[in-house]
Amino acid sequence: MFDVEKIRADFPILSREVNGKPLVYLDNGASAQKPQVVIDAITKAYAEEYSNVHRGLHYLSNLATENYENVRGKIARFLNVPDEDEIVFTSGTTEGINLVAYGWAMENLQAGDEIILSVMEHHANIVPWHFLRERQGVVLKWVDVDSTGALDPQAVLDAIGSNTKLIAITQLSNVLGTVVDVKSICAGAREKGVPVLVDGSQAAVHMPVDVPDIGCDFYAITGHKLYGPSGSGAIFIKKERMAEMRPFLGGGDMIREVHKDEVTWNDPPMKFEAGTPGIVQTIGLGVALDYMMGIGMENIAAHEKELCAYARTKLDGLNWLNVQGTAPNKAAIFSFTIDGAAHAHDISTILDKKGVAVRAGQHCTGPLMDHLGLTGTCRASFAMYNTKAEVDVLIDALELAHELFS
Amino acid sequence: MAQAAFEELVEDFEFLEDWEDRYRTVIDLGKDMEPLPEALRVPATKVDGCASQVWLHPQIDGNTFHFKGDSDAMIVRGLIAVLIRLYDGLPLSEVGAVDARAEFGRLGLTDHLSAQRSNGLRAMIERIRQTAAEAA
C-alpha cells in the first residue's frame, strides 16, 4: 500500500518552509531530496565505519570496503543485472558517459564514424560526444522528436548508416518528460550491430528498469536523482564492451602493478575506478536504492502516473500556459512557458515566493531549446513524495504569475 | 541621499503591504520603462552574470551620469527602472557613494541583492559604479 504521507514523513526537508510558505519541491528533475535513512547512513558511515576502501587490512578498512562493495550488488539488483561485475561506480551520469566516450568510443571510433543522438539529450549525453567530433572527426547525427515531443524508435533506426558506431539516447527526457522506447531501439540496433548507450538519469527514478530486457550496452544512472547523495552513481557496461575499453582515469585502485616502464590494469570493473571513490556517497546510494526497492518501483510509478494525469488536466485548464511535451507516454515532468512577455525566470521567481521550487532556464538541453525555438522554460518535475495538493499550490502560484505579468 | 525620483518610490512603497504588491509595482515600473533600442542591445552593453539577458547603456553628460537599460525578463526590467531612479542624473562623483543595498532595503527588495540570486542586480550595480568611476 503506497501511502504518500508516510513517505513524506521520511523526508525531513519536506516539512520546512521557504519564504514563509510550506515547501512544494518540484525540482526533482534537477535533484531529489533525501530520506532520513540516507542521511543517517551518511552520518553512521563517517561517525562509526569510515576508512578508505580497497586498502590495508585493518578492521575499519575491511568494514568500509564491505559496505561500499555491497552497493555494487544493490545497483545490479536495482537494474536487474545478473552480473554485478558489469556495474562500474561513478560520480554520476556525467562521469559514466565520459567514461564511455574516453574509454570506449575514443578507442574504437575513427574520423567519419557516426554517433546518433536525439535532439532532446541532456548536455551530459552531448558534450562528451562533441569531444570526439572535435578531436577525432566523429560525426554527430541528430534525430528530431515529433510535435508532441515523442521519439519514433524507427526514426532512430532509420538514421543508422554503414558508419554508425553508437546510439546514445535518453530513456526519459528531463525537459519534455517523454518516455523513449529504448527496448525497440536496442533490438533494431542489435540487428545492425550498433551498440546503444542509454542515459537512465531520469528514467531510473520513475519506473522499474530492467537492463537485460532493454538490451542496451551501457546504462548510466546518477545517485542524487535517486534520493541518494550527490557524487554517487553507476554505469552498467556489458562485458563485451568492457573488453573493448581502455581505462579512462588513471590512478590508484585501477592498476595491478605499476613500474617505471610498465603498468598493468586491475580487472573490470575496478579497472575503470581510479582513486579514492565517493565511499560514503556510494554507501548512501545503496541505502537510497534499498529505500526505493522497499517501496517498490511499480508502486512509485503508479503513484507518479496518477500525479502526472492530475497535473496534466490541471495545467491543460490554463489556456495561457504552453506545456512543452505532450507525448502519450510521458512522465510527471512539465516544462512550460506563459503567453506574453514573462521570462522563465520571472515565473520561477513568483513561484518561489509561493514556496514552489521549480527550475527555470535551458535545463542543459541547448539543442532541444533550439528545436523548440525557445530561450528557456520553467520546469515542474515530480517525485514519489509529491501530492495532488501540491499540484494545486503550483496552479495557484501560476495563476498569480499570469496575473502579475499580463 | 538618493535622487528625488527614488525618494518618491520609497514613499509609494511605504503603502504596499506585502511582497505581491511590491513585485506588482516593480513589474509595472518595468512595463512603463522605455525599451532600449535594438541597436543598443550589443555585446558592449550586455551585462554578464545575469540569468536573463540584461543590457545597460550609460550616457555621460558632462559631469552627470545617465543610463538606460533593458532585459528580457520583466522583474529584471523593473529592477532596472528602480536603478534608473536611484542613479540617473547623479554627479559622477556621487555614484560610488550610493549604498545600493541600503536603498533597496528601504523598498523591501533586499532579497534581490543576496549573493545567490542570479538576477544580476549586483552585476548591474557593479557595472554602473565602474562606468561612473572610469568617466570621472
TrEMBL record, chain A:
**Transferase listed as a keyword:** yes
The keyword Transferase belongs to this UniProt entry's keyword annotation: yes
Q: Which UniProt keywords apply?
A: Pyridoxal phosphate, Transferase
| Top-rank lineage group of the source organism | Bacteria
The cofactor named in the record is: pyridoxal 5'-phosphate
User: Which GO terms fall under molecular function for this chain's record?
Assistant: cysteine desulfurase activity; pyridoxal phosphate binding
Q: Which residues form the Aminotransferase class V domain?
A: 24-394
EC top class named in words: transferase
EC number(s) per entry: 2.8.1.7
- Would you kindly state one Gene Ontology biological process term found in this protein's UniProt entry? cysteine metabolic process
Reaction(s) catalyzed by this protein?
(sulfur carrier)-H + L-cysteine = (sulfur carrier)-SH + L-alanine
By its UniProt entry, which InterPro entries does this protein fall under? Answer: Aminotrans_V_dom, Aminotrans_V_PyrdxlP_BS, Cys_dSase_SufS, Cysteine_dSase, PyrdxlP-dep_Trfase, PyrdxlP-dep_Trfase_major, PyrdxlP-dep_Trfase_small
Entry function: Catalyzes the removal of elemental sulfur and selenium atoms from L-cysteine, L-cystine, L-selenocysteine, and L-selenocystine to produce L-alanine.
* Protein family: Belongs to the class-V pyridoxal-phosphate-dependent aminotransferase family. Csd subfamily.
In its UniProt entry, what is this protein called?
A: Cysteine desulfurase
Organism for this UniProt entry: Thalassococcus halodurans
From TrEMBL, chain B:
Domain (Fe-S metabolism associated) ranges: 10-130
Recorded hits in InterPro entries, A to Z, give:
Fe-S_metab-assoc_dom (IPR003808)
Highest taxon above the source species: Bacteria
Q: Where is the signal peptide?
A: none
In this record, what's one Pfam family?
A: SufE
Q: Into which family does the record put it? A: Belongs to the SufE family.
Protein name from the UniProt record: Cysteine desulfuration protein SufE
- Species source reads Thalassococcus halodurans
Q: What is the lineage of its organism?
A: Bacteria, Pseudomonadati, Pseudomonadota, Alphaproteobacteria, Rhodobacterales
